[in-house]
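Hi L.,

As promised, Xanthine dehydrogenase family protein molybdopterin-binding subunit:
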Amino acid sequence: MQQKNSINRRAFLKLSSFTSAALTIGFYFPALAEESTILTAATAEDLGIVLNAFISIDKSGKVNIINHRAEMGQGAFQAVPQMIAEELEVSLDKVSIAFGPGHQTKYGGSQITGGSSTVRGAYKHLLRTGATAREMLVEAAAKKWGVPATECYALDGKVIHRPTNKKLVYGELVEEAAKLTPPKQVALKERKNYTIIGKPLPRQDTPPKVNGKAEFGLDKKLPGMLYAVVERCPYFLGKVKTYNDSVVKTMPGVKHVFKVQMPVFDTLREGIAIVADNTWSAMQARKALQVEWDTTGFEHLDTAALYNRMKEDLRKPGLSQRTGGNFDATYDKAAKKLEAIYETPYEAHACMEPLNCVADVKDDQITVWGPIQGPDWIQRDLAERFKMPMENITVHMTFLGGGFGRKAFTDYTTEAVLISKEIKAPVQVVWTREDDMTQGPFRPGAVYECKAGISDNGRITAFQTKMAAQNMDHQWPHADKSNFNGSTTEGLPEVFINGLDHYSFSDIPTESPIPVMWWRSVYASTNGFAYESFMDELAHAAKLDPLDFHRLQLRDERAEALMQMLEEKTGWRTREKNSGWGMAITECFKSMVGEAVKVSKQPDGKLKIDRIVAVMDCGWYVNPDIIRAQVEGSIVMALGAATTHETHFTDGKAVETNFHQYHMPRIMDVPDIEVYIMENEEKPGGVGEPGLPPFAPALCNAIFDLTGKRIRKLPFNMNEV
């Protein structure tokens, strides 16, 4: 059993924000164990175990949950309570949820909200915890009545005795239940018996977001808090040469002006912090600041040079992620051969809420609040950077106005802590939209070389992809740059790769000073465009319908069910001759998504998207409305990256500074999106990201179907095709 330092129970409950709780249970993972163990808070304290405090039930019967993940619109604040409420047998209006602070050993592993992992990573433990609490309450009621527990059942926050119909509400039972030992085995419901899971129930976080009660990072206020903005070097590796703050220091509200650095992977980005008693004063003072930057000693790349470098890199040997059979020999003998090059752009994250962070640094303590995707990661990072014990660092999550990977990074939190430490006061550091969009890190652009051989019957006999792009993992300090990109195959269905006899997937890591990082669906967002566009080209080379061609390659019962649904919902076999239809199927984060797009020409000759159909197979799921919302959002984001926006670079600086240049899709640009969800008993997959990769290739394949023009470079202008 893994032992931890004992913690005071009152402190534990206070930490959990449930000081009035009478029954608190959660789970932890014993050393080397694959299954979690569920304990009460009191037992955990006695054993010195750091418990994952997920459920507390107070004497009023109110159920409180600590959510270990961020809520950035993906629906964790709804999905987690739905899972707990289902097995606990309570209505959702009896359940409230709060953010858990960053902690290295709680919550069953990483707290980083990414990889579409909230449900698929914790669903078993959450269901078991809810069911365990239910059985403990049933046992407590049975003891109170002096009857066998088998004669009792739970329903709607009560325990009922079948023979007599006697009832006790949960609040009357929690004190006795807290004295019991949680059962090691509990029966979970079958899906057919669910009354809450699988239902499109309204999200609990919607009302506070509408009425203004939800706390986002910018809403956080502390007594004596000051406000800061930072004039950061516009060049990614630039340094402060000199600065003149004489005018700035005389401006109203300004308290401090000083140089600050923040870590960006293995480099430091420099800037001048301006601290004032309000944000407006700090921003106005920033305009008067005079800074001279040292921009020597590093490349000043522009977009054309970047892509020329990637194309040159394709001529180099690749770092192999997966290789099987003998691609070269089989490709040489193929009945038909095809090669193609695809390009995808750099992208900003463009969250509706720009970066911000509140930090309060004491002599031996650091506390931060903000829109943070990985509180445990931030806690560990700050401990290492400031040489402080982990337990002295507290990281609080607020709601996030979008994240997409950007708010899982450590730069903006470290910067806020450094400023608070310097001024010896709490501070809120606010990034402007221009800061957010020009400083990066960005989604990496990429160039792909795809080759394949096909047989006379349309089967792929040899398949090779080579990706030239910056490798995110190569940017960290002491990174091994001989390592291949582990995401080279991301986006391709696993059943497709398993069906290949001769294949090669590799990458050439392009070197650039531009910082890059995760963006919604990570490398699948660019891989998907190249791979599924190429699949469509192969289908036409084989003279096969694209859906039939996919069936030849994806010989799998689950994939076939998805393709049947896509065929049925699109009316694929009866599509009109004067319209263009394209489709694509991708897989990432254990979910497979098929999408089809219909396009047509308007009287003025311009293209129009008429219809978008998406079929999501994420296995076991919680709330269909959340799935539909996430797929719709993914498609809109993919539409923008395909047709309206990208980040360019000139002289080593980002060009697009705000939405007047980085054009986001507007509501009138997006047709109705139909989302269908597969029903099966498979393990849950991700939902927040897998809907993005198939859209761009489906759209471009539809344009080819209508016009005969192949689009191999993104973004493109719909009005100029």
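The chain has three domains: 9-211, 217-297+355-430, 314-346+442-720.

Thanks again for sending the construct details.

K.
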